[in-house]
Write a structure and sequence with these properties.
Layout (H helix, E strand, L loop, with lengths): L9 E7 L6 H10 L4 E6 L6 H10 L3 E5 L7 H14 L5 E6 L2 E4 L19 E7 L12 H4 L2 E3 L12 H5 L15 E5 L3 E4 L6 E3 L7 E9 L5 H17 L9 H13 L3 H7 L3 H9 L3 E3 L2 H9 L25 E8 L2 H13 L14 H12 L18 H17 L4 E6 L3 H14 L2 E9 L2 H12 L3 H18 L5 E5 H6 L1 H12 L11 H12 L6 H6 L5 H15 L4 H17 L4 H4 L1 H7 L14 H6 L23 H15 L17 H12 L5 H7 L1 H6 L3 H9 L12 H7 L1 H5 L4 H9 L15
Parallel strand pairs: 1-2, 1-4, 2-3, 6-11, 13-14, 13-15, 15-16
Antiparallel strand pairs: 4-8, 5-11, 6-8, 7-12, 9-10
Helix pairs in contact: 6-7, 7-8, 12-13, 13-14, 14-16, 15-16, 16-21, 16-22, 21-22
InterPro entries: Nucleotide-diphossugar_trans
Protein name: Glycosyltransferase family 2 protein
Length: about 775
Amino acid sequence: MSQRTQKYPLVMTILVRDEADIIGQNIAFHLDQGVDHIIVMDNGSVDGTRAVLEPFAADRKITILDEPSQDYLQDVWMTRMAVMARETFGAEWIICNDADEFWWSPTGNLKDALPPLDGHETMLTCVRHQMIGPRDALDHTDWRQALTYRPATPPTFPEIPNDLVGIAELELDHPLFYYQLHGKMIFPAQGLQYVVRGAHTGHYDRTLPNPAACEVEIFHFPIRSRVELQRSVQRIESAVARTPGVAIQTSWKYRRWQYMAERANSIWPAFCDALPDRKRVMRDLANGYLVEEPVILQLLDRIMPQPTADTVSPEAAPPVPLLQDNTVGDLVLVMGAEENAANTVADFLQKLGAPGGRPDAGPSDLLLDAHRAILSEMERAALDFRDPPPEWFKGTSAKSWHVTVMELLLAQHADLDFAVLCDPTLDALLPLWRDVAKANYLGLHVALVLDNPLTAAKRIQQQMGIPVEVGALLWARRIIRMERESRDLPRHIVEIADMTSDWEAAADRFLRAIKPQWPRAHRADGDDINAALQGSVAAFAHSEADVMHAAQVPDVVKETYDVLRALAVNDRMPELHARLSSIAKEIERTTRYLHHVLGTAKLARDAGLSIAHPSPLNRSQAQIDRLTLPVVSAESTVQPVKDDSPSMTRRELLDKSRARLLEKDTHGVRGTFDKNAKGLPKTSAILIAAIKDAPEFDPAWYQTTYPDVAESGADPALHYLHVGAFECRNPGPDFDTLRYYEANPDVLEAGMFAFIHFIRFGRAGNRAIFPAEPLPG
């Protein structure tokens, strides 16, 4: 036992591991609150925590201990520090703290709450508060500014099951951090023998009086970021699993979250389980379930001031209108990344009284025809995930279209009193409508429809045959573009789930945000609106929880959805706009190899098909179809199969592969080779375009490696598709066809060309590729 060198009435102990973002503030706060000395045990931190601790140690305000063990022995370590506090530093009272907890006294000095030592002292019970906030705020705001609310009257947890599956599937009525926390103790040092895990009680060498209430309050900041949550879940669950004899209910929430994360291959289900979204925060503040608690933020700002971030207040504020005076009418553009959702909202707005088209205006789709004709000039398709070419909007053709679309608008709408225009192509044509509105003194407003990415991705899969994962990325790419391009317009984000669950509340929010002057007499009867929306409920059946728990939905899409849902509550948050811009860059990196699904018009052009520039009034369906060629097929439904056959030599695999490819002819290109590329089937042209776009395809290498290609005079990509792929040739130095088949027997079983499968599905599914090896002779 160390000899006592100091006498400190109040000593705090803290066990830390990778707490660089908070430990410095924690130490400074408690020294300011009257703690005399702090013992910090560093449990193998690698994130810079030690560098934060060193200056405090140099000033002799803290003592640092090292504990490299990865086992789950917090009670043992906390007891060791508590004994050291008493024996070495002469502590009379001991606080066993965590790095994310702040102990606060109303007087500003924790020692004011400590009774005199008279031989009858006992443990002091301190109430703990969970500090929470909207989870989206943690991705763009410092934790102490994001977590500023606490439950007014926390509910108690339901009974926790005794098995892992029961714990993981336990249904909670509230986010987990809404629930009541056990209090923690301030310990009298004399006779303390053991600190129970969590510091909820302790064991002494004598019987103490019952614990006494204490005016000290503890504010717990349980999550500071999504990344920190993931790190904590993995670390704690791993330590618990590695330590024998730990009860299943110990650290049960981390076991629950690890189970969720493994099942969804994502931390998002746990993140949503722990904290509310912005909509829930706003609702619970309004009904008094949550209260604002700024005391720790205010004290930390005094002790360790930081730059103030933009407010994360959930109260909404409408954007400033683009045109406020002298408008001849107003137009509401309904835009959404998924056509069905946008049409549902447009129909809903018309039932609320929005002007419809003129009954004598002729076909109602003339304006939509004009949109598609404009897109054809841009070499874009109706279903096109690429950005429109910005230079087109500055040209003479765009200016000539201004007059046409305005005339068509007036022809279709006798009343431009917030008339509704809905078209899935509007996001690409928004610059055109901006110019039209400005030239014609037309007020422009946007209803941005936020649908469910899982529902949208499955519809994209049905339309284009691509995997749900890719469809979800394309959805995110498009909805972010819509949000970015409409950001400076007066707009309202309509969440489709809100409209189908409580249309009256959704209508009220829209009407207050946009303020249309629709006569109430034009509004449909409530029963009619209910009946109309009932048919939409099944179409949009996936919930937010379905998205967050779906392993098929990439994390970057889940974050996009979460941020947009926060913007639906408060659209005036620059920090959320900045976060979406950052997400957009990540999605661009993710989708940089998906050129073959970003735009169907490009594939039509590469296939040698003429793209007509039809009159908006005389465009045929065939021309539309030509712009919406399928880019992938139902081959995406190929399922992995188990190959139980004995291992083959490379020669045997080559023979088997060639026979299987000729037998199946999955891609329908056998016997269609023409080195002059005359009369190519559409499917061949589309596949050739995809091959050329793939970075692994090296035409020069292909010609050099296989001299007959150059001798034939055929385009290398054309030759590869119609000859080389059947013969299992390699398309470039970085892709070995036979090794791909060997690693992915499901691809060969389906009769698919290895390289085509990798381009369409393998890359997105992280299937491995191998350097090219010569084919066996």
